[in-house]
Design a protein that fits this description.
The protein contains five helices and no strands. By secondary structure, the chain is mainly alpha-helical. 82% of the residues lie in helices and 0% in strands. It has one domain.
Amino acid sequence: MAAHIAWVAFLYVLLSIVCAPAVWGVIKNKRDIWASVEPRISANLSNQFEWPLFFHVTCVLLIVMGNGDPVQLWLAWIFVAGRLIHSFVQILTNNIRLRGLVFTINFLAVLAMWFFLLI
């Protein structure tokens, strides 16, 4: 959970850095490279509060139940690694198929966490 929260904090810092030139009036040209990256960072940041919510709920339940199963830990790390890769793909490329594949890995990792939590 802490790794994902740290990643989200990094994305906020990155978005602030990218938006700063426009906010401070440094950008005079709309074709600036940062202008094209900012919407993708912003969209990715929004994505960090959708499906990851189920990851965090699962982790809290595992902690409360005292279920420190190694399988759950591996699935959690797969999810976090997948979120990092998903961010890189979404921010640095326009490859929607690859982004969908990476999201599927994240999705399945959290579903598996829920499955093992419930059985």
